[in-house]
UniProtKB/TrEMBL annotation:
Gene (UniProt): speE
EC number(s) given by UniProt: 2.5.1.16
Top enzyme class: transferase
A single cellular component GO annotation: cytosol
Pfam families: Spermine_synt_N (PF17284), Spermine_synth (PF01564)
Binding annotation for spermidine: 63, 87, 156-159
Domain PABS per the UniProt entry, residue ranges: 3-236
Keyword Transferase: yes
Physiological role: Catalyzes the irreversible transfer of a propylamine group from the amino donor S-adenosylmethioninamine (decarboxy-AdoMet) to putrescine (1,4-diaminobutane) to yield spermidine.
Active-site residues, Swiss-Prot/TrEMBL: 156 (proton acceptor)
Protein name, per record: Polyamine aminopropyltransferase
Catalytic activity entry: S-adenosyl 3-(methylsulfanyl)propylamine + putrescine = S-methyl-5'-thioadenosine + spermidine + H(+)
GO terms under biological process: spermidine biosynthetic process
Gene Ontology molecular function: spermidine synthase activity
Length: 283
């Protein structure tokens, strides 16, 4: 292969390779290794610890699915919290909802936001909206301290390693429950059904113990391992399968639609099996 290629080793036996035009920025932040590169096929791309976080070319699949599914499930979301998400993509989608009065971004690494503002304006463009508050702190701690504060909480985290490990724990989900209003709901990105089945199963079981409604839905993210991605939703009152679409806002989107929202909860048999298996069974 000619030229310079970046390869992310996504599993011990699988890599995704992207041809680079140039490296725009590289630094070690207090939390992680951060790079912004220009790719031939997906435009600019953000890497943290050599793991693809987002690209200008395919970010809309992920950001629209993680934001609009919970926001349209809630009939009148006014306050939203994003944990992680320093690139700003989820915030950009949240502020498309006219009912939103305040969107809080809690990102542990200020350098992610600074670099997104400088190199990824298409993704970070919502961060200066008057309804947005940005706090540079640990999302685990933030949620521990909040009570009855948010209509919707979205966890747009890195993979469950380093500072993000605690964002996948049952204790964190219990704190999320407390931080939500009495009819609030929450969504987290929960990795690949192809490669992280055991994690997804454990999360779904934890959520089912904490929330009256716990559901898994799927989306496509071309640059993530396997291309098929999972999102886990816990809700105190509203069921994502019973949205009153006549009352939902008209959104300008590129991937998400009401039909895709509904269809995302239709789980293929192999994913259903993941949820039903016992931990000691292989999948
Ligand atoms: N969509 C991406 C993915 O799934 O690969 C995630 C993108 S976003 C840039 C993830 C962010 O979560 C990173 O900027 C990271 O700094 C942040 N993060 C990790 N752990 C965190 C924590 N405990 N509290 C707040 N932010 C955290």
């Amino acid at each position: 292969m000619q030229g310079i290629w970046f390869s992310e080793l996504q599993t011990p036996g699988l890599a995704i390779s992207v041809k680079l035009k140039k490296t725009l920025h590289h630094e070690k932040t207090p939390y992680q290794d951060l790079a912004v590169v220009e790719t031939e096929s997906y435009g600019r791309m953000l890497l943290l610890d050599n793991i693809i976080q987002t690209t200008v070319g395919d970010e809309f699949f992920y950001h629209e699915m993680i934001a609009h599914v919970p926001l349209n499930t809630h009939p009148n979301p006014r306050t939203a919290l994003v944990i992680g998400g320093g690139d700003g993509g989820v915030i950009r989608e949240i502020i498309k909802h006219p009912s939103i009065e305040k969107a809080t971004l809690v990102e542990i690494d200020a350098r992610v936001v600074a670099n997104a503002r400088e190199y990824l304006p298409e993704i970070s463009c919502g961060l200066d909206d008057a309804r947005v508050e940005i706090r540079f702190e640990d999302g685990i701690e933030h949620v521990r301290q909040m009570e009855n504060a948010y209509d919707v909480i979205i966890v747009d985290s890195t993979d469950p390693i380093g500072p993000a490990v605690g964002l996948f724990s049952a204790e964190f989900y219990r704190n999320v429950y407390r931080a939500l209003k009495p009819d609030g709901l929450f969504v987290a990105q929960t990795e690949s059904p192809l490669f992280n089945g055991r994690l997804i199963r454990r999360i779904q079981r934890d959520l089912a113990e904490i929330f009256p409604i716990a559901r898994l839905y799927l989306g496509t993210v071309p640059t993530y391992p396997g291309g098929l991605w999972s999102f886990s939703l816990g809700s105190k009152e509203y069921d994502p399968l019973e949205v009153d679409w006549k009352k939902a806002p008209q959104l300008v989107t590129r991937y998400y639609t009401p039909a895709i929202h509904q269809g995302a909860f239709a789980l293929p048999p192999f994913v259903q099996e993941i949820l039903e298996k016992r931990d000691e069974e292989e999948f």
